[in-house]
Each structure stands twice: as structure tokens, then as C-alpha cells.
Amino acid sequence: MDHLDDPRLNFDYRTRERGTVPMDTERDRFQWVSEVAYKNVHRIVTRGYDTTELVEQGYGLTDVLFIDFQSRIPLLEEDKMLNYVMVCMLEDGLSSPANISRIVAGGKTILTQAAGSSILAFGHAYGAYQEIGKMMDGILARQAKEGKPLAEMVEAVVKTRLNDPALGVSGLMLKDPMAKRMIARAEKSGVAGQYVSLMKEIAKAAQKLSKDPVDIDLLGATGAVMFDLGFTPEATWGILAVTRAFATGAHYCEEIEREAPVRLGQTLTPKEWYDGPEDRPVPTLEERKKVAKAMEAQTPEEWKQTFLERQKIMGSGWAIVEEIDDPRRKI
Amino acid sequence: MDRQPLIKRKTAISYKTEEKTVVRGYSVSDLAEAGYTFYDMLFIIFQDRIPAENEADMLRYETGEFLEHSMSPSAASAIAVIGGRPNLPAAIAAAVMTFGSAHGPGAAHGYMMHKYIERARVEGKTLEEMGKILVDEYMDAGLAVMGMGQPQHLDGDPRAEPTHIKHEQLCSGVYLALQRSIEKHFNARRKKEGKAFVAVNMIGAGNTALAELGFSPNAAWCIGCVCRGFSCAAHATYTMKKGRAWAASKREPMVQMLDLSMIKYKGPADREVPSQAERQEYARKQKEEGEYKKWTI
Questions:
Q1: What is the complex's ipTM, to 2 decimals?
Q2: What's residue B101's pLDDT?
Q3: What is the residue extent of each domain of chain A?
């Protein structure tokens, strides 16, 4: 009583072949293809440079980041600026990555689990480097194509994204000089370029359009400087998420040093925080037939009604409305 | 905008106000302005101190060489995860999480060193003597001596011995003395047993230097493993931008990582699915016969 003889199936399920697929000898065998690095028994090579020879010559982590991601040795001022950005990005107090690391540590896990999981905090709001990079590249590309004044192009974009967490301009750094000092340092050291200029234009437009005071925030400053250092939005996302992960190792250690581990079933959720349905009796399996009703919609109108009903159920996901042409782009 | 932390914790690491972020008492922005480097910051955050220049130089050396190691479990994981095209941080996180008891067991090596240095102190033995004791105890118990051997670099990890030499030059101390003794006695015993020479690996060399620099076993492990996250981000980004999603396309000139022909199956032979009417009897018999235990993992 199965459906495996249904004529709508794409092939005959009763006579399907068994066993694995033979080795493909027509094409080249599988190999790890990389433009980034290779190693053999005696060498580790990134972008053509032997890593031991690099460190013996005095190059360090920040230099190797330029080599790995950009295939070039940085100017001294670029290396210094990357250090500056990474110094500022290492620690951010009890923000999301530190919290995640501490929560994972509480389960009595190993350090790499906690530090690794902290990287997952970086998305399209917290550390939204991919988003801000796309926005800035989009503005620059359109300006190059259309030839309109930059200020005009920027204002048009900012108008639609004033409260976007990936704008790089907000009220977060009004009293903290870190972002402004970073921009000033990039300009002073000669590494600032079109992205720093663009970020300042974005700030100007946002200040004009916003009712509340706003200025370049840490995302805007670090993003613009990293892009001017030649890192792509994705490289920046990865580098700065990993930079933060070092400090989450310290948070992992402190959590274990100062707090007791958390056991399965230990954590309570206060009833006063709950605003779901009132407590109710569980129907018997007999009663279920009367209580439960199928929800499949048969017409678009019925679908709309159930859609709206479902939106009222917090935690169902129906109230999250997104247009996703590419699931990687979660705006 | 809610700016309160999600979890309430007493912390000696840092605080953040609307005005500044402070790590171990130092304003982060002031540190950056003063020209302190990322290497200095790792000492500040983990050890509450600004390092001497020779110490920062050693950390620059180590992190520079740790960063890229081409195809290891971490890079392979990053590449595999990005094949499904999730957000990039998912691939990097997975890569960092590959570090465990086989791939870069830095914390375990650190704790081993601490245990035997303490024993040298308590038992009044030299570190040279203690290295032999450690090797004998581990090998007698059939345990692997941590910090030795690398499956790809058969003549020794190319980074390891130069790291020892740099360590000797910049910050030599008890950890290096013990590690050198372990290596000497480990290979002396292997030679006696007719076994081939095995060189120190990057745990034995790199982690020893990090310990000498004052990083705890977990802090040292963090630095080593998270450092690799940078290059895994590069490998994932390269694959995302220039590789095929899913890694199974037949249109590629090379067989892909997840091509069907890459699967070699060694499990139970194909068998008929029992109907629900047959199920209870079938399952009872299967359980009694116990052949399934051979496959249970």
C-alpha cells in the first residue's frame, strides 16, 4: 500500500539499481582546489609565500591576513591600520559573541566550541559587514554608471535605510570617540580612500534626514577602513568575526572560573514572562478527533485567512515577512 | 534602543559604557591610538598585562605562522560547510570547532606540562629528568605523548623546529626545557624499540612557546585555534566566490568532493523494508539475533 507504482513518478522505483556509483574515470580525480594555500611534507605556502620564511623575516598575523585575502604584502601603514582596527574590535564587553561563548561554556564544553560558536553572532545586524559592503559598493557602482553627484546618490539610499542596522550610522557612538578617532587615524596615515569618504557622506545624509542625532558608528568606521585597506565585505566579515572570537575565549575562561555549570532542565522560565494560551487540559487521543482540525487551505482566499491567523502565533515564524531572492541575503 | 546585556555577569575582563570600552582598565581606543598592536591586546585581555617587546615579537611570529595551514580538518570543514551556501560565519565557526583532541589539542598539552613541572618542583627533580618520566609514564600506559608527530608533515612540521629556535632566542624558560627533554627521551625510547624518529609538532612547539609567554592552557588553545579561523575564512570565501555550490556538479572538469562516485559504502547489504504488518515480528527477531550490534555506532 505505498505510492511507488504511481505513474507520476519520474522513474521505476521497483527496478532501481542498487549499490554505489562507480568511480568516475572520465574526469580528473577529486582534489582540494585552492588559490589560497598549499602544503607539502616540508612547506606551508600561502599565495606563493612560505609561511615559515614569512615569520622568520618578521611578518606577523596581520601581514598574513593581507597575504591570505589579498595576495599581497601590505604597506607598513596598512599593517598598522589593520592592527588598529583589530585592537578596537577584539573586545566589546558582554555583547552577543561574549554571551554566546559564556552560554556554551555553561554546558561544560571545550573552549573551541564556545569560541567557534561566538562567531555565529555575526549576521546582518550585528557586525553586518557583508550588508554594508554591498550597500557601499552599490552606491559607488551606480554613481560611476549614472554620473550623478555622490551626495545626491547617497541621500536617495539613506532615505530608505535610515534605521537599517547595516547603515554604519546610528546613535550608538555619539559619546564614544572610538569610531571618529579610527576614521581620523585612517585619514592621517594615508590609508583612507573612497569608502571612508563615502561613509562620511552617508553620515552627512543621515544627519540631515534623521530626527535624532546620529554619527558614524563602529560598523561604519571599521567597515569603511577595512574596505579602504582592500578587504572585501566578506573578508572583512570573516576577519572581524574571528578577531572578536579571541576575546570570547577569555569570556569562556571567566565563565568557568566564576560560575557553576548549567545542567539540563535547570533553567526556569517565569510564568509572568509567558503570554501564550492559558493552561488547558490535554485532550485524550479519542477527543483529539473532535478537537483537532486540518488547516490546509484550498483557495488563495482561505490561505490568506490562515496566513493572518498564523501571524498571531508568536514563535511560528509567520510574522517574519521577508523577500528572499537569495537565502544568504537576510536583510 | 535596549543596550542592556542579555546576561548579567560580574566580569574582570572589560566594561563598556556609552563613552568608552575598557579592557582590564585600559581604554581600547586609547590603546589603539597609542600604537599598541593586536599581539599586545592578547596579553592584555588574557593576562592583564602589557607584554615586553620580545614577548610581543614571539606572539607575532607564532600567530603569523599559525594562521594558514592549507588543508587540515578546519579548512576542509569550512569548505564543506560553505558548500551549502549558508552565511559565511557559519563556515568559520564550524572550522574553529574542529579543534579537539586530535586536531591541535593545545589545552591538553598545556595541562600535561603543568602537571609535570609541578611534579619536578615537588619531587625535587630537574626538568630534564621529568621529561623522561613523562615519556615513560605515557608510553608505558599506551598513551600518545602530546606534541609529537604530524600526519602530513612526515619529517616534522616545517614550522615546529624554527619555532623552538625562535622561542629559545626570545623567551626561553621552564616549558621549553621540559618540552625539549620530552622530545629527546621520546625518540630515544622509540629508537630503543626499533621505531622511526618522530618530530615535534606545532602543539609541542607552538603551545610550549605560548605557555612560556604566560598564556594558560585554554588561552593558548584559543589563540592557536581561533587564529586558524582567519585562514578558514579565506578558504570558505574563496570557495564561495570561485567554487561550485553543493560540490557535486557533473559539469565541472574535475570530479567534485560530493560527486556520487565519491561514496564508498561498507554497511549492511540492501534489504527489503518490512511492512507494518510484519514489523513487530521482524523487529523482535532482529533484536534477538543481535547482528545489528556490529553496525551500532
A1: 0.90
A2: 82
A3: 32-74, 75-264
